[in-house]
Automatic annotation (TrEMBL):
PANTHER family: PHOSPHOGLUCOMUTASE, PHOSPHOHEXOMUTASE FAMILY MEMBER. Its EC number is 5.4.2.2. Keywords: Carbohydrate metabolism, Glucose metabolism, Isomerase, Magnesium, Metal-binding, Phosphoprotein. Monomer. Its cofactor is Mg(2+). It comes from Arachis duranensis. The gene is LOC107491347. One of its GO terms (biological process) is glucose metabolic process. Catalyzes the reversible isomerization of alpha-D-glucose 1-phosphate to alpha-D-glucose 6-phosphate. The mechanism proceeds via the intermediate compound alpha-D-glucose 1,6-bisphosphate. This enzyme participates in both the breakdown and synthesis of glucose. This is phosphoglucomutase (alpha-D-glucose-1,6-bisphosphate-dependent).
Length: 582
């Protein structure tokens, strides 16, 4: 058995190791600097405290992007040196973010051990490869991202760090082969276990959904299906779940081989980046070959995001969570006893609010970032939640879950079509249009201005805050642009008081709220790695069922006009059009 020594290596701080909305994300060339990753990992161990780290069981894996394999070896050696008892690695270093959350909560090791936390190696939906992004974040014992109290400590530690611990002579572990490797260090045994990436997650999904009814749908000649993993880690789960368990055709999987650079693409499931799927589904301007499938979905790099499509039909993420919530009790066994409550992030449309009101459910509006849902879930206040940023999920884990969302939609389709599969199929589009007819429709769009000069973005935001002090002034501008848009009746910056721990998060987005329920929201992204990304969210509610069938961009044109002029978008950013519209 290999006996390793612990080295104390002198180091000094790097600027800017502040974790964002979802961990530390930087270009690979930043991460590969000597000591850069080491400093962040040691700062994390120090924030968790030595007592908690000693004897811990740590999961270390991610979406398989470039630099992950090296990072896993480095973190393993540092974990050994810091007294961690065992490290669990998904085969080939692959675990989706939701699977990590599941593994922390559910997996029991061969010796009865349970995980205490995880390093997730991902930059989510950002591109990967030697010239693109890498990322790392820490998740806690509940399976959710570290709370701000911890990430603030991590950051503080990165600014004062002087040394880190590493077992330099620990040999690299072969992460392609399943099994346990045993080592011994100064504090006793240290093991690395490589385990199958999908088993625990598949088991959890089978305990939530009625796989038999989904299988009937997926194998019916009336139904057709397509799933695009955009070469992210979702591919490691898609074949096991959709093909092996549920009987989908193998050729219904697109880009399902995980790649270190996501095949050179941008692994973000939206109408701009999921090009191949969008074309296959008969959407966009591209020529479609043959009849599009009835259902299509895509995932991002680490498989926590989802995009749901019907034949020639896009489901907005805001509608998706409302529709899942409205149908969950009937269609998904896990929820058959009822929902504890539902929640959405502030910029997400109010479609969920309306459904919650009809269904008499507890409802919460939280700032952007999944961690805010986790607190509600741990307190038993929330069963289903979602965000406009293509994240949907439930309290089965503490991360959003892309494949779960697809299974939720397939369950609803299976339920709506039960006994009817021989007649005309109830489609995704039918389900959405029926939902609008019952609850009204929230027309919704998001404009992203990516990689804008950070100073200019700050100035634009400051200007919008300043403008809020005089509503008459705001309304003069609004009416000057479009007289057919209603009045702004309230304007503020969103602030959230967590109902569970009482903590306050301020400056969570600039809101302009209109008399007819429309909203304009401006926010700076917390997940970019270069410059600033301005997000503009535009929403308008239509209750009249005879008016819910309009084209979204036509219905929203007046508000878009107002938003661009009100914010002086072009003046501040120099951009005449957004980078991405969703
Ligand atoms: C990550 C988080 C989400 C959040 C999103 C916001 O994906 O997990 O909870 O909605 O980032 O990203 P943004 O770029 O808008 O800050
Ligand atoms: Zn993601």
């Amino acid at each position: 058995m290999v006996v390793f020594k612990v080295s104390r290596v002198q180091t000094s701080p790097f600027d800017g190791q502040k974790p964002g909305t979802s961990g530390l994300r930087k270009k690979v060339k930043v991460f590969v600097q000597p000591n850069y990753l080491h400093n962040f990992v040691q700062a994390t161990f120090n924030a968790l405290t030595a007592e908690k780290v000693r004897g811990a069981t740590l999961v270390v894996s991610g979406d398989g992007r470039y630099f992950s394999k090296d990072a896993i070896q480095i973190i393993t050696k540092m974990a050994a040196a810091n007294g961690v008892r065992r490290v669990w690695v998904g085969q080939n270093g692959l675990l989706s973010t939701p699977a990590v959350s599941c593994v922390i909560r559910e997996r029991v090791g061969p010796d009865g051990s349970k995980a205490t936390g995880a390093f997730i190696l991902t930059a989510s939906h950002n591109p990967g490869g030697p010239h693109e992004d890498f990322g790392i974040k820490y998740n806690m014992e509940n399976g959710g991202p570290a709370p701000e109290g911890i990430t603030d400590k991590i950051y503080k530690n990165t600014t004062t760090i002087t040394e880190y611990l590493i077992a330099e002579d620990l040999p690299d572990v072969d992460i392609s082969a399943l099994g346990v490797t045993n080592f011994t260090g100064p504090e006793g045994p240290f093991d690395v276990e490589v385990f199958d990436s999908a088993t625990d997650y598949v088991k959890l999904m089978k305990s939530i959904f009625d796989f038999e009814s989904i299988r009937k749908l997926l194998t019916s000649p009336k139904f057709s299906f397509c799933y695009d993993a955009l070469h992210g880690v979702a591919g490691a789960y898609a074949k096991r779940i959709f093909v092996d368990e549920l009987g989908a055709q193998e050729n219904s999987l697109l880009n399902c081989v995980p790649k270190e650079d996501f095949g050179g693409g941008h692994p973000d499931p939206n109408l701009t980046y999921a090009k191949e799927l969008v074309a296959r589904m008969g959407l966009g301007n591209s020529e479609t070959q043959g009849e599009p499938p009835e259902f299509g979905a895509a995932a991002d790099g680490d498989a926590d995001r989802n995009m749901i499509l019907g034949k020639r039909f896009f489901v907005t993420p805001s509608d998706s969570v409302a529709i899942i919530a409205a149908n969950a009790v009937e269609a998904i066994p896990y929820f058959s006893a009822g929902l504890k409550g539902v929640a959405r992030s502030m910029p997400t449309s109010a479609a969920l609010d309306v459904a919650a009101k009809h269904l008499n459910l507890k409802f919460f509006e939280v700032p952007t970032g999944w961690k805010f849902f986790g607190n509600l879930m741990d307190a038993g206040l929330c069963s289903i939640c979602g965000e406009e940023s293509f994240g949907t999920g439930s309290d089965h884990i503490r991360e959003k879950d892309g494949i779960w969302a697809v299974l939720a939609w397939l369950s609803i389709l299976a339920y709506k079509n039960k006994d009817k599969l021989q007649d005309k199929l109830v489609t995704v589009e039918d389900i959405v249009r029926n939902h609008w007819a019952t609850y009204g429709r929230h027309y919704y769009t998001r404009y992203d201005y990516e990689n804008v000069d950070a100073g200019a973005a700050k100035e634009l935001m400051a200007y919008l805050v300043k403008l809020q002090s005089s509503l008459p002034e705001v309304n003069k501008i609004v009416k000057g642009v479009r007289s057919d848009v209603s009045n702004v009746v309230n304007a503020d910056e969103f602030e959230y008081k967590d109902p569970v721990d009482g903590s306050i998060s301020s400056h969570q987005g600039i809101r302009y709220l209109f008399e007819d329920g429309s909203r304009l929201i401006f926010r700076l992204s917390g997940t970019g790695s270069e410059g600033a990304t301005i997000r503009l969210y535009i929403e308008q509610y239509e209750k009249d069922p005879s008016k819910t069938g309009r084209l979204s961009h036509e219905a929203l044109a007046p508000l878009v006009d107002v938003a661009l002029k009100l914010s002086k978008m072009q003046e501040y950013t120099g951009r005449s059009a957004p980078t991405v519209i969703t």
